[in-house]
Recover the amino acids of this structure.
């Protein structure tokens, strides 16, 4: 990442130093996942489509702890592996929009809310912002080579607005996903998450001039 582009990392200190956490990342370029893996202050385990696990790339992705997911249906094995990352106090990376697009958090799937509510892990919003100029691009889906890419971390927040005090550990963070998991609760959590992610993206764009 540092060889082909010029990453500038802002707010990495906002990522909790230990314990489970979910990084919710916008997705506008093919390098968004690798860029975050290379610049985050802790190792990140991403949910990655199974189609990427081909050839020599497959063993490599598995070796660095990435989670293979079948996007054609409810992949219970992948869900279990992702929850396992959080149970072990790790960092789970998710593209809440599900696939690469405008990267504006305009349309969120329910997966992020499910993992956050089920695990009780806080969410840290991340904005990966590359140049929109066409000049210097060798591949359409990538930022221009040697161009600056800003990786902006936001403040951690809970998926559900209120977490019962009994769900919290001594450091004030939730230690279990004992909040309601009904469809209504997940829908409400998704709306809350989308608001927080959109707000962070707007702040990140103002901060970086993107």
């Amino acid at each position: 990442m540092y060889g082909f582009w010029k990453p500038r990392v802002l707010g990495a200190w906002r990522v909790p130093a230990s314990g489970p956490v979910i990084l919710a990342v916008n997705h506008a370029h093919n390098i968004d996942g690798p860029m975050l893996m290379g610049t985050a202050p802790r190792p990140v385990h991403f949910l990655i489509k199974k189609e990427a696990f081909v050839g020599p790339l497959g063993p490599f992705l598995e070796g660095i702890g990435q989670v293979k997911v079948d996007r054609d249906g409810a992949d219970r094995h992948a869900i279990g592996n992702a929850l396992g990352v959080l149970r072990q106090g790790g960092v789970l990376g998710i593209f809440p929009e599900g696939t690469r697009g405008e990267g504006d958090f305009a349309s969120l799937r329910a997966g992020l809310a499910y993992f956050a509510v089920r695990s009780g892990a806080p969410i840290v919003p991340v904005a990966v912002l590359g140049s929109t100029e066409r000049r210097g691009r060798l591949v359409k889906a990538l930022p221009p080579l040697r161009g600056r890419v800003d990786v902006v971390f936001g403040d951690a927040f809970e998926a559900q607005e209120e977490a019962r005090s009994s769900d919290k550990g001594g450091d004030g963070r939730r230690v279990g996903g004992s909040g309601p998991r009904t469809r209504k609760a997940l829908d409400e959590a998704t709306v809350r998450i989308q608001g927080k992610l959109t707000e962070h993206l707007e702040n990140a764009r103002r901060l970086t001039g993107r």
Summary: The longest strand covers residues 123-130. Residues 167 and 174 are 5 Å apart (CA to CA). The helical segments are 32-39, 57-63, 76-87, 111-119, 183-208. Strands lie at 6-10, 21-25, 44-49, 67-69, 91-94, 123-130, 148-153.
